[in-house]
Amino acid sequence: GGSPLTNKQQSGLKGDRLHAILELKSIADVGLVGFPNAGKSSLLKAVSKANPKIADYPFTTVRPQVASVEFPDYFVLRMADIPGLIEGAHNNVGMGHDFLRHIERTHMLLFLIDIHGFQLNNDSPFRTAYETLQLLIAELNMYEKQLLYTRPSIIALNKMDQEGSQALYKDFVASLSKDKVKYRFSPTVYPVSVKTRAGLAELITNVRKAVEQERSKRGVEQMSFQKRLLAEDRDIARVSLIPKS
Fold first, then answer.
1. N or C, where is the chain less crowded by C-beta within 10 Å?
2. What is the mean pLDDT of residues 120-128?
3. Which residues are bridge partners to 78 per DSSP?
């Protein structure tokens, strides 16, 4: 640089210019994984203060939406809405690699699947809920074989408020029980309806438990509310530590 105070030997010379691309190693505790229109953005909005774009057509989410999920005891976890995958994502179909790499930057996965199945468009084959899960697993495995072995995963079946959902749920659980490859999936499959909020409290409570266990394994300190305020340089005396009833 040109300042004699900082560079006496080369004062007056041009400085260096550097173009650097920095990528976060971790973006969230939980990554929402699913095909388009499974309800991932709606779930994120239901459990946090995030306001992602929601519409009745595929690919409304084109980049990860990260939000904080806060609990009455001030525990906070970060959840990321990963853009919807499609078949062939591991071959970079539909910006597959851009979407899949975001999954690597989360510490656990929450698979959100439409209980009534998925069909991308009229020219695409229809997939049942169980076939949808198998395809998602296949795409992740073909992209990175260790992905599902190194992260705990929870399965949630959405749109349970619609007719015929209970029978489909039983079929899904029966098919899953026959699957020999378990990876690190939770043994419980959570039936939910993001629209009516049915089942969300139980789901998020168990997601929190999984996050706490994973943080403990990684040696991440469970920062108390007081420590978090100090870290953010706030005055504790001005904040009520009593949860709202």
1. C
2. 84
3. 68
Torsion region of 199: left, alpha or beta (phi above 0 gives left; psi -120 to 50 gives alpha): left
Side chain identity, residue 45: K
**pLDDT for position 26:** 61
State residue 234's pLDDT score: 46
The backbone torsions φ and ψ at residue 164, rounded to the nearest 5 degrees and listed phi first, read 85, 5
User: What backbone phi and psi angles, to 5 degrees, belong to 30?
Assistant: -125, 135
- What's the half-sphere exposure (Cβ side, CA atoms, 13 Å) at 145? 0
CA distance 123 to 2: 63
DSSP conformational letter for 54 = -
Q: By C-alpha distance, which of 95, 82, 99, 98 is closest to 32?
A: 82
Which pLDDT score, from 0 to 100, does residue 120 have?
76
Edge-to-edge strands of the sheet including 28-33? 65-70, 76-81, 28-33, 106-114, 153-158, 185-191
Q: Residue type for 235, please?
A: D
Total Cβ atoms within 10 A of residue 56: 6
Contact 113, 155 (CB under 8 A): yes
Please give the model's pTM, rounded to 2 decimal places. 0.74
CA–CA dist 36, 56 (Å, integer): 10
Contact 27, 10 (CB under 8 A): no
pLDDT score, position 174: 93
Buried b / exposed e across 133-146, counting CB within 10 Å, b at 16+? bebbbebbbebeee
Residues 160-218 pLDDT 10s: 999 999 999 999 999 998 886 678 888 899 999 999 999 999 999 999 999 999 888 87
User: In the structure, what pLDDT confidence band is assigned to residue 95 with cuts at 50, 70 and 90?
Assistant: very low
Q: Which residue has the tokens 């499609």?
A: 86
